[in-house]
Design brief:
A hairpin with a 5-residue loop joins strand 6 and strand 7. With 172 residues, this protein is of the alpha+beta class. It is built from five helices and eight strands; from the N terminus they run H-E-H-H-E-E-E-E-E-E-H-H-E. The relative contact order is 0.12. Helix 2 packs antiparallel against helix 3.
Length: 172
């Protein structure tokens, strides 16, 4: 194939994928992605934003009731606004678990991280929790209580993933 023809195909595929995304449909597999299908399970973070809002409420009550409140100035309200924005960011930035063909990907505090099959020691499931143990690094815990993950669906997908790659899967 010629290079110009490949570029035209990729451009058309990109335009079709944009249209499909607007209509809520799954994108077409591209030649660049290698046909990797990801099963993504999204959660909802609400404990950290609630903690931040309670903390800033406490901070405002303590500071406003103090005698030195008149000396605080604009930096006080800037700090309050920054904490509210941080709580909003934690709310909008949803945690997720993506299961690919040979890796698991999730959003951590420092960004998106992946664990490949050779680094997964075992996967365990119990009611409301999924734990992915690693050879190197800490365990990844997905909780229904903390982040509103659909742990039952995740357990089914991770069971097939572990059976496919020979990883031990325990259910308690």
């Amino acid at each position: 194939m010629s290079r110009s023809w490949e570029r035209k195909v990729q451009k058309n595929q990109s335009q079709i994928n944009k249209q499909r995304k607007k209509h809520g449909q799954a994108p077409l597999m591209s030649a660049k992605s290698g046909g990797v299908k990801l099963d993504t399970f999204k959660g909802r973070s609400y404990l950290m934003p609630a903690f931040l809002l309670l903390f800033i409420l406490f901070y405002v009550i303590v500071t406003v009731s103090a005698d030195t409140y008149k000396q605080t100035g604009n930096m006080f309200w800037l700090t309050v606004a920054c904490y509210v924005i941080l709580a909003l960011l934690f709310t909008l930035r949803r945690p997720y678990l993506s299961v690919g063909s040979d890796f698991i990907r999730s959003r951590r505090f420092t960004g998106d991280r992946s664990i490949y099959v050779n680094n997964i020691k075992s996967i365990s499931s119990q009611k409301g929790y999924i734990v992915v143990e690693q050879h190197k690094g800490g365990n990844w815990v997905f909780s229904r209580v903390m982040n509103r993950f659909p742990t039952d669906q995740m357990a089914e997908r991770l069971r097939t993933f572990s059976a496919q790659h020979g990883i031990s899967f325990t259910e308690k």
